[in-house]
Design goal:
2 domains, 22% helix, elongated, Trna Endonuclease, Chain: A, domain 1, five-stranded mixed beta sheet, seven-stranded mixed beta sheet, 6 helices, single chain
């Protein structure tokens, strides 16, 4: 006896909604008048799909409840109550309300649904039905056209897939940008901290004179960028891996982050371009700047084809804002076969090089609270 085919659950909620629309279109024999309800972001009153079953006059509705971790996720009574109450406000009289879910069968939830259905029918309202994933698979096998369609998209998902990761397959990566942290202090001439600072500065200036170091180049504050590397830029190593079973042609990939998270994104540290950030001609030809935003790059590989289990590695650089501790990097992949979006998390742990600036005042009334300024650290 041949073992039954195991049908995997949908990869995303969009595919699950489409499956439910096609399947119940056949179950209710209303393929011409079954449709998805509204669009993403609109109020749907608990109804994802609606149709009119053949021979009936009133609407039938479906609420699709996809679960991410399918084997462990369960519907809860609170979820069920919430969706049923929403359906009461649907603009159209319902005769039945179906809750379709990718969660596995649960006897307690099924009993709860039965009692709810009896309660609502006794009030002259709609019938309530639950279809768990095993129930959906059983019905799916009754309709060969929908069954073959679903097997087709499931096989396609298995065969075509790209993973984006950091080193060692990780989805998070830690960076350590370096910044000057300058504290402005308003002090009186007799301030002990200021007096100690002035003594050190005078001694260093005397030493600088002996060594013929230009006066404008302080030995205490080495913030000049001349011939030094901007240490606020952080390298981000990315791996692009074909985890499917078919070849994939990667046409391009857009890499971006939010402007409130980073100052800029680049294929090189700008100081390697003689400190001139406009010198984009020196960038590798595979990584291009998006002229519309400093926070986006476009990757166009010379070798587009990625065979199964093969991977590509690219490096780029980001300059995080000094006041954040994490940020998201977003990837839009355009392949010959399909389009997908992914994102990875970058943890930011800044290194601060503290300096002080003393502003001399001559009365307590002129003193102001200390203020802090951050700037890139050069080394």
């Amino acid at each position: 006896m041949q073992a039954p085919t195991q049908i995997q659950k949908p990869a995303n909620w969009q595919d699950f909604e489409t499956l439910c629309m096609k399947l119940w279109g056949r179950i209710w024999d209303c393929t011409d008048i079954i449709t998805k309800n509204g669009r993403v972001g609109q109020k749907q009153h608990g109804v994802d799909i609606w149709g009119i079953k053949k021979g009936e006059q009133l609407y039938s509705a479906i609420q699709c409840k996809g679960k991410d971790e399918y084997t462990n996720s369960k519907l809860t009574r609170e979820e069920i109550d919430r969706e049923i109450k929403k359906a009461l406000h649907y603009n159209g009289q319902l005769t039945r309300f179906v809750i379709a879910t990718t969660a596995n069968k649960d006897a307690d939830i099924e009993e709860y649904i039965r009692l709810k259905s009896i309660e609502y029918r006794s009030k002259g309202l709609f019938d309530i039905c639950l279809f768990s994933w095993e129930d959906i698979v059983d019905r799916l096998k009754e309709y060969k056209d929908v069954y073959q369609w679903y097997l087709g998209i499931s096989t396609y998902i298995d065969s075509h897939n790209i993973e984006i990761s950091f080193e060692d397959g990780n989805s998070t990566y830690t960076v350590h940008p370096h910044y000057h942290k300058k504290t402005k202090k308003y002090v009186l001439p007799d301030d002990k901290e200021y007096i100690a600072y002035k003594m050190v500065e005078d001694n260093m200036r005397e030493l600088a004179d002996k060594l013929s170091i230009p006066k404008q180049q302080s030995l205490l504050h080495t913030s000049t960028s001349q011939n030094k590397k901007n240490r606020s830029w952080c390298r981000i190593p990315i791996f692009i891996k074909n985890t499917g079973t078919a070849e994939i042609e990667l046409v391009k990939m857009e890499i971006s982050s939010k402007e409130e998270s980073i100052l800029a994104m680049n294929a090189k540290i700008p100081s390697e371009l003689d400190g001139v950030i406009e010198s984009w001609a020196a960038l590798p030809s595979e990584l291009l700047r998006n002229n519309d935003t400093p926070c986006e790059l476009i990757y166009k590989p010379r070798e587009r084809l990625i065979v199964p289990q093969d991977k590509k590695k690219i490096d780029f650089y980001i300059q995080p804002h000094s006041n954040i501790n994490q940020l998201d990097v977003y990837f839009k992949l355009y392949t010959r076969e399909y389009y997908s979006e992914k994102n990875l998390l970058v943890v930011v742990k800044p290194e601060y090089h503290k300096i002080s600036e003393y502003i001399l005042v001559y009365s307590n009334e002129d003193k102001m609270p200390d203020s802090i300024e951050y700037s890139p650290y050069y080394e």
